[in-house]
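TL;DR need C-alpha cells for one chain.
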Amino acid sequence: MEKQAGEVRRVAGALPLRPQDETECRRCCVHCDKVVYPAACLERSCPFVYAYEEWGRTYVGCMTKVYDVEIDLAILTETQGRRGGFGAVRATSQPLPMCRAEVVRCYDSRTEELGCPNPEFGELARGRPPFRVVARDGAA
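>> reply
TL;DR here they are.
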C-alpha cells in the first residue's frame, strides 16, 4: 500500500495544475503539440496580427506571440491557393479563442493501452469554459 501511495504522489506531481494551458505534452511516448494556422488569422481579421516591411517584403506575425515566427505575406498568400494551404505553425503560448488551433499528435502508433495520461491537454480555448457553475441558495 505504501508503494502505491508513493506512485500516486509521483504521478500527481508530474501533472500540471492547468494542463490545457501548456503548448506541448511529453508525458507519454506520443508527443502532442498545439498548432495554429496563421492564414486563418488574416482571414478572420485578427486584431493581434501585425505587419511590417523589410527588404522589399511584407512580414506578418502575432502580437500576443501565440506563434513566434514572422511569415512572408507573399509566400503565405501564394501557398494558400494550393491544396493544403500554408499549414500550421507550432504555438508558443496558449491559443486565443479566435485562433484556428488544434492539437497534433506525433508517433500515434505509440499510444499506451490506458490511453492519454493528460487528456485535458487537448482542451482548446473556445471563448467560454466548457462548463458552467451555478450557485443555489437553497430557497427554491
